[in-house]
Fold this protein.
Amino acid sequence: MAKNNKDGEAKEKSTAIDLSTISEEDMKKALAFAPEDMPGPLLEESSFATLFPKYRENYLREVWPLVTKTLEKNGVSCKLDLVEGSMTVNTTRKTWDPYFILKARDMIKLLARSVPFPQAIKVLDDDMTCDIIKVGNLVQNKERFVKRRQRLLGPNGNTLKAIELLTECYVMIQGSTVSAMGRHKNLASVRRIVED
């Protein structure tokens, strides 16, 4: 109910909700998106493509049937072009979750960065996201880049394992990039560690 202030104008009562009082399970239920929530097909088709290195070709050919099966469950089509060296994901008339195409894009980016399929598929979960950090651009000197990369790995990969345990994220160093997967707030910690 609105109350009148001294100028005679109606003043609305604030009904802000403290989100910290809502459990994570209740929040997930409230934000869940089901096929029946989408009354019709998407108005436009969206498409994302990413290139992959030649050495990934055999692995991608091997896991591609699993990628296709996983994405088709959500109405997203995918194409592996071995001649061009690219992977493409597209929405279809059966796509019921408009955000899923962005998750599919992230998955093919991770696959191109040598993240194994069983790990890359986890980015399709609602509470997971990924970040690909280009380490090669952070330093101009090749020698400093190699030292930085080695410092991130540590002896026998121990530093990398410690980063994963502390941030609760999956972290993979490949070439001049660091691929990380986890919750959004944890990825910010990974990025800080990598860039410092």
